[in-house]
Amino acid sequence: xxxxxxxxxxxxxxxxxxxxxxxxxxxxxxxxxxxxxxxxxxxxxxxxxxxxxxxxxxxxxxxxxxxxxxxxxxxxxxxxxxxxxxxxxxxxxxxxxxxxxxxxxxxxxxxxxxxxxxxxxxxxxxxxxxxxxxxxxxxxxxxxxxxxxxxxxxxxxxxxxxxxxxxxxxxxxxxxxxxxxxxxxxxxxxxxxxxxxxxxxxxxxxxxxxxxxxxxxxxxxxxxxxxxxxxxxxxxxxxxxxxxxxxxxxxxxxxxxxxxxxxxxxxxxxxxxxxxxxxxxxxxxxxxxxxxxxxxxxxxxxxxxxxxxxxxxxxxxxxxxxxxxxxxxxxxxxxxxxxxxxxxxxxxxxxxxxxxxxxxxxxxxxxxxxxxxxxxxxxxxxxxxxxxxxxxxxxxxxxxxxxxxxxxxxxxxxxxxxxxxxxxxxxxxxxxxxxxxxxxxxxxxxxxxxxxxxxxxxxxxxxxxxxxxxxxxxxxxxxxxxxxxxxxxxxxxxxxxxxxxxxxxxxxxxxxxxxxxxxxxxxxxxxxxxxxxxxxxxxxxxxxxxxxxxxxxxxxxxxxxxxxxxxxxxxxxxxxxxxxxxxxxxxxxxxxxxxxxxxxxxxxxxxxxxxxxxxxxxxxxxxxxxxxxxxxxxxxxxxxxxxxxxxxxxxxxxxxxxxxxxxxxxxxxxxxxxxxxxxxxxxxxxxxxxxxxxxxxxxxxxxxxxxxxxxxxxxxxxxxxxxxxxxxxxxxxxxxxxxxxxxxxxxxxxxxxxxxxxxxxxxxxxxxxxxxxxxxxxxxxxxxxxxxxxxxxxxxxxxxxxxxxxxxxxxxxxxxxxxxxxxxxxxxxxxxxxxxxxxxxxxxxxxxxxxxxxxxxxxxxxxxxxxxxxxxxxxxxxxxxxxxxxxxxxxxxxxxxxxxxxxxxxxxxxxxxxxxxxxxxxxxxxxxxxxxxxxxxxxxxxxxxxxxxxxxxxxxxxxxxxxxxxxxx
Length: 969
Hints:
The N terminus and C terminus are likely disordered. The chain has 969 residues and is of the alpha/beta class. Helices cover 18% and strands 22% of the residues. The strands form 8 sheets. It has a 23-stranded mixed β-sheet, with no helix packed on it. A 10-stranded parallel β-sheet has the order 30-32-34-36-38-40-42-44-46-47, with no helix packed on it. A 7-stranded antiparallel β-sheet has the order 48-49-53-54-52-51-50, with helices on both faces. The longest helix has 33 residues.
């Protein structure tokens, strides 16, 4: 009886203690649950019952039924984590809240007692504030893994970081940390993985880093670190991965790095390193990938490279290396990617290169190489990218390349290559980009069968090809065909009309004769047509005026005759015409691109100017012509047909007058000059409508020198429009108002139209069409992957149109979600400005915009726009705005999201950086597509402007996502 009572008493005391301790854990966990949003209902079985706490989702318990592990990674939970008691669970050793949408600051109560934490992972959330000092106190000395990466933590890395004496894994990358790397970090002698990449750290790498003997991985890239690489890194004998990319490191590569015998990955690209490659680097026998590109390294590449038997990727491009390409590269059995472009290399390409390796990518462009292209390059059977342009290579294209069916992208332009194209070469099935222009090739290309079904770009310009042109190139995907500056003769093949995707056709400077085939007018996507400097005869096809996007037409230096089709002046997209030195007669069309045509573009004909405009350099048309017309006209009035013709003529004249510059008197500002490019707008909108809209209309947006208002006609019609008031018209360039005429004629489904201009001596207004919808920035976080992809496609199409069709006219200062308008049908449209108006939003000015690259002062505008598009792609994929104030401020801000994206793409799983809205179904279904687009975004935001793809390649890469065809490169 006494024994039973004792047992009951012990059991009672145990249950009392169990209920007390588990009651505390229960309270903490339920409090945490109530403070967050759980859209996936992962915590559905968390309810008020301590007896089942160990069976709750995400929880494991120890032998005493205490919670010792809480794992909620990737559950899409959101909410504030400020002062959350979740960190106070007394027995938890493993806490993983990574890959969610938690916000706020971490607040840990300081305590003298030891924390039980061994593993703490809060990565890939939206946490802000400084790193909590208490986390780096002796209380957390048992912590082995600390991952706070990919948040928005700011401030400095605490000096107390060295107190975490048991830490093996530390990742603080992808935040907004500033200041120097504290020297105390070198006291963490148990640390194996150190990642501080993608922050804003400055100063030197701690010189005593060699004390951290257990380090296997160092990733300090994408910061602003300076100084030299410490020689003591050579004492880290366990190091497997060294990544110091995208910093401002100077000086030579330390010889001591050759001591790292276990090193497999050495990445030092995008720094300011000088000197030659140390001989010791060639002794790293386990090296798999070596990237020293984009530095200022010099000297020769040693033959000792033959010792790197495991190397698969070798990037030494964009340096100042001299001498020959070492023959030792031939003997590297695993070599797949060799890129040595943009150096000063001389001599011949090693003749057995590719024979003993698995070569897939070879880029030796922009050097001073001579000799022949080796016959062995495709011996692996896997070569798909061959880039050798801008050298002095001679001889013929090797026969072996004619059978290299894996080739996709071939660029051999601007060399001294000769010979004929073999019949086998013109049947390679996978080549989509072929440029051999600027060489000495000869022979006929029309007497062989072309069967290149993937071909999208073909450049044969500036060679000595002769004979007739082929009727087909075996591809219905051709977009760019340049056969100019050769010796081609015969007729223009009618088969070219079947190229429905053709955007650019250049046949100039040949010996072509005959008529311009009407079949060319079937190419409805044609933007540029250059047939100049040939022997073409006959008339201009009337159907040429039906081409919807034709922007450039050059027919100069031929033997064409007849009158200029009047409907050619009605092609609203046409901005550049040259018909000089032919046998044309009659008058010029008085519309479209002919309104202000340059005299040099019409000279050498028998043309006259109907309006007597001296700017064309043509004599006025004789009055007899008008008398003849007046005599003939009454004859048409005899019947109904004549009456209808007259009615049409009256309508046409009125429409023309509507489009012409009009002067309107106003009491306040004197004379106003108004011009509309849309007939409906010309009839509906008057100066009072514009002025009242600018005075009383709702403000839509503001820029550095403009304000946009909603506009509406005051009359009976309900036409809406947008008025953009220019704050200081006198600051605009002299050519501004002339350029707006051409700007107003731009027609593309992904561009919002400019429909009119109004100006006086004091004020100026631009009138745009009104379309219901929202800015991309307003709806981005609610979009599915498919909608995001379609938006990216639409913007890319607009940029491609602008760059290939009117890059000299329009200027997109900043491609950002603010200028992307999504209408009610989901169609994206760019809101552009004529040149002279700054498009960026005036927060800190354009220079600080995260959508503009740092080198904007020296970059071609097209590459600036591609950079902005790349940043926007990152935003579409991740849901993170580079302008988020929580991400930090300052000039470095626009780099953060790009650097963060590079860090995530290279070191993190897709789930860690994708927008949580797309997690689950979209992410799983389109994972490869999303990865491809992120890769494209990183190419678009390359630091070197010349490395960014053109708009055409961007669009092709986006299109290729769903068809598994090669992207660009």
